[in-house]
Amino acid sequence: MKLVVVSAGLSVPSSTRLLADRLAAAVGRTAAVDVQVVELRELAVEIAHFFTNGFPGKALAAAQEAVAGADGLIAVTPVFSASYSGLFKSFFDVLDKDALVGKPVLVAATGGSARHSLVLEHALRPLFAYLRAVVVPTAVYAASEDWGAEGLEGRIERAAGELGALMAGLSGRPVVSAVGASGAAVDLPAARGGGDGGFEVVPFAEQLAALAPKR
């Protein structure tokens, strides 16, 4: 399965890219994925030119193709003015309007203060809902004080498990394990063995139910 990671970090090194890499690595622990990273800061000029002439440059066209062909997407942005960055929004503005329809997406953001964590719900989730993507229940926000602190890793693993389950459900491939809401490893019924030796795809609702804590 192909996992594309879109990182809108501007600095080098970037906490946004660091979070993106940790999320991608966590997905790789739950499902067999080939990861491709799209660094938006490298596409900034081509994105601007696209808005003025309507034609993508070679690198931007490759990024558009990668996102459209992905089985799943991780989208991470730094917070600017209590929302996603302009570069982040501009990239998704230049995608084909149907590029993300039905595609599993994990959204995440980084910022200097925990007060901006609601950006995930009031900005990122509505954006991808508008684009008709399937956004996983757990979104991940990392403030400056979260790095190295307890709690961030659990959120990363939980979100990655949800994305891996959705990707496997669409492809019909099994997921070995993931981390549930309680932080414990759980087996995911991403696919069941069929009578002909193949796999039967399990509905999203049933896959997500496996991630819920046992009561």
From TrEMBL:
Gene3D superfamilies: 3.40.50.360. It comes from the Bacteria. It holds the Pfam family FMN_red. InterPro entries: CE1759_FMN_reduct, Flavoprotein-like_sf, FMN_Rdtase-like_dom, NAD(P)H-dep_FMN_reductase. GO terms for molecular function: oxidoreductase activity. NCBIfam families: LLM_duo_CE1759. This is Oxidoreductase. The keyword Oxidoreductase applies. Coiled coil: none annotated. Residues 1-147 form the NADPH-dependent FMN reductase-like domain. Keywords: Flavoprotein, FMN, Oxidoreductase.
